[in-house]
Design brief:
By secondary structure, the protein is an alpha+beta fold. The chain has 8 helices and 8 strands.
């Protein structure tokens, strides 16, 4: 027999469970049904992959869902919020430039005019300052380098064979100097009729 402990359940939940067991004709006890439901939830929740973060990608700056945007103009402020993957302003999805221009009714530099407060933060920070901080952090990050494997030294036997082969090639190379004198027939008068030299052809 397994030991059991008490778990507080809302009366409405317990009544709904008992009604469902009665409707389906299940012979299970309400305590057994609760235990089975908990074990089923533990098994299914462990296999569910974590959801990807939602938010709006503003150039290099990512604004997670729940981020507030504040536009200041002529001593007045207007607000927009990131819902899902969009910036919502007055019930419609806008870009940061559209939000800034719509409130000021003129072309504005959204990076300079919009301040941002991300979820969990208490203070507002200008968007251009956040972008500079992000770029500075990326520049200060150490570069990822891949170490090359060390060169494998040649085995002593391989080096000895290479040295022996080089010496053999050198010993087979003839040491007689090349003859650069004129060949037979080059000094005869009729050489221009039957033989040609490169300098004769080049300068004729």
């Amino acid at each position: 027999m397994f030991a059991t402990v008490s778990v507080n359940v809302a009366p409405a939940t317990l009544l709904a469970l008992m009604d469902r067991l009665r409707e389906t004709g299940s012979p299970a006890d309400p305590a057994e049904a609760v235990d089975a439901a908990i074990r089923h939830w533990l098994a299914t929740s462990a296999s569910v992959p974590p959801a990807e973060p939602r938010g709006y990608q503003w150039k290099t700056l990512f604004l997670p869902e729940g981020t507030w945007l504040r536009m200041a103009y002529r001593n007045d402020h207007e607000y927009a919020i990131v819902e899902g993957d969009h910036i919502m302003y007055k019930g419609r999805a806008v870009s940061p430039n559209q939000f800034a221009s719509a409130f000021a009714d003129s072309v504005r530099n959204a990076w300079q005019d919009i301040s941002i407060r991300m979820p969990g933060e208490k203070n507002w920070k200008r968007a251009s300052l956040r972008r500079r901080e992000l770029a500075r952090a990326a520049a200060d990050a150490p570069p990822c380098s891949v170490a090359s494997p060390p060169a494998t030294p040649a085995a002593p036997a391989a080096r000895a064979d290479l040295t022996k082969s080089t010496a053999t090639i050198q010993s087979l190379t003839p040491s007689v100097p090349r003859n650069t004198g004129p060949g037979q027939g080059w000094t005869e008068p009729e050489r221009r009729k039957y033989r040609f030299r490169l300098e004769d052809v080049a300068f004729e």
